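Q: what sequence does this backbone want?
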């Protein structure tokens, strides 16, 4: 029997000792390790906490995390005790599981870790392939935490794919599939149709589906899966419509601008159930407006399923959103923003938002990437928008692409040269020295780079401590 955990540090040491696919290169071999029978047995040994709590289950290539936090905030604002499960974390492990915005206390983290410790030790003695992974353990811990807090509903972001993801043993009230593009191709397949099939693996009988999928071949797969399960499907652009979108600019009156949060937007959205007017969203970009439209359709469906959220509560919930690394502005003069774009589709959305909402005299790109991503395609999308490109490699994850490899891609595919920085701190110093007050510094290419540089910049912005 393992010795009981007594501190947060011991709990994290146990967790980080497990296999972690967020920190290893995805491959076909790794893909074969994704299966639900192991997770199912883990949860059964914990008395199936996931079956006791209704959920909103959200998959997709891009937008699933943003949509999850929107739904969560609106439910919390309506008075429902709401659990939110997302990944990966930015700074602290506990960020992955929240109840009404609050992360587990040290006592709660120790309690749920000890609850799972003996079960994991027993499963480690099973035949090869049945030892729980890091993400499976974390997902089970989240369910235990949500049970401990006695939540009313859980909003779950899928970790990878959907069909075989550890979250797919939940009991959803509504299922969501946000937009789909090529990503994690070594695990999910190399076509939009194959990826859509994996994402649509979360569809379940008697559970309505909200979809933001746009590409025809991916839409066709979602349609077929929903038809096979005989479940209603509500699609963005067909049943859910983004009718109006205003950003703070000359086209808005002074009164309107005052009520729209900085770098946010005001939306009008039509769902099959309600017309949502004057919805303020403190996130930039048309893609976030589309995510909000999906989230509001989810709220309307939940209303039909016994979880009523008033329009005022939903609006208030959306204005409370703080969602780091999603075109997040960290400072002005120069404007510095970080974004977790890590595939071609998200890089394209970033460029569209920068061009529409972030005018600047000159723009500086700080870029790093992960080895299993299409970083060449991302650089082809991004390089036109920036006068200066600084390439670096993050230090907090071993999957980073070497700087010299990125430089070769820029020379060969973008016909440009770039500045090279050995680490994010050096890249930040170079970016600051090359930017004037009216310029833009954009940090993107990887969630891990965005998180690491966000921490660096925030520490520099924090007021110095005065020693008496």
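A:
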């Amino acid at each position: 029997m393992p010795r009981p955990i007594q501190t947060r540090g011991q709990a994290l040491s146990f967790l980080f000792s497990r296999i972690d696919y967020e920190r290893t290169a995805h491959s076909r071999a790794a893909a074969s390790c994704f299966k639900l029978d192991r997770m199912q047995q883990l949860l059964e040994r914990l008395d199936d906490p996931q079956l006791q709590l209704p959920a909103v289950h959200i998959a997709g290539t891009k937008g699933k995390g943003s949509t999850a936090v929107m739904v969560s905030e609106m439910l919390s604002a309506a008075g429902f005790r709401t659990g939110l499960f997302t990944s990966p974390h930015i700074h602290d492990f506990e960020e992955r599981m929240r109840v009404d915005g609050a992360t587990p206390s040290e006592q709660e983290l120790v309690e749920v870790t000890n609850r799972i410790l003996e079960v994991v030790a027993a499963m480690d003695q099973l035949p090869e392939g049945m030892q729980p992974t890091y993400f499976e353990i974390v997902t089970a811990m989240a369910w235990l935490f949500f049970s401990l807090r006695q939540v009313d509903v859980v909003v779950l972001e899928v970790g990878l794919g959907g069909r075989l993801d550890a979250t797919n043993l939940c009991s959803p009230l509504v299922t969501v599939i946000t937009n789909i593009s090529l990503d994690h191709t070594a695990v999910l397949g190399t076509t939009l149709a194959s990826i859509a099939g994996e994402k649509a693996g979360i569809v379940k009988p008697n559970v309505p589906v909200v979809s933001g999928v746009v590409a025809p071949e991916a839409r066709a797969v979602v349609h077929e899966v929903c038809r096979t399960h005989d479940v209603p499907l509500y699609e963005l652009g067909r049943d859910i419509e983004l009718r109006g979108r205003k950003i703070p600019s000359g086209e808005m009156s002074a009164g309107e601008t005052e009520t729209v949060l900085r770098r946010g937007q005001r939306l009008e959205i039509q769902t099959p159930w309600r017309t949502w007017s004057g919805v303020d969203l403190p996130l930039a970009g048309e893609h976030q407006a589309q995510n909000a439209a999906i989230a509001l359709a989810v709220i309307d469906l939940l209303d039909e399923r016994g979880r009523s959220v008033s329009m005022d509560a939903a609006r208030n919930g959306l204005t409370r959103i703080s969602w780091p690394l999603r075109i997040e502005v960290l400072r002005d003069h120069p404007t510095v923003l970080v974004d977790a774009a890590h595939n071609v589709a998200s890089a394209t959305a970033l460029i569209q938002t920068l061009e529409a909402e972030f005018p600047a005299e000159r723009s500086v790109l700080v870029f790093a990437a992960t080895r299993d991503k299409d970083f060449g395609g991302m650089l082809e999308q991004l390089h036109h928008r920036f006068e200066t490109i600084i390439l670096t490699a993050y230090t907090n994850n071993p999957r980073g692409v070497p700087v010299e490899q990125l430089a070769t891609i820029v020379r060969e595919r973008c016909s440009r040269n770039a500045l090279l920085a050995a680490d994010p701190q050096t890249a930040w110093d170079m970016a600051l020295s090359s930017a004037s007050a009216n310029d833009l510094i954009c940090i993107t290419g990887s969630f891990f780079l965005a998180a690491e540089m966000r921490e660096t910049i925030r520490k520099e912005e924090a007021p110095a401590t005065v020693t008496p």
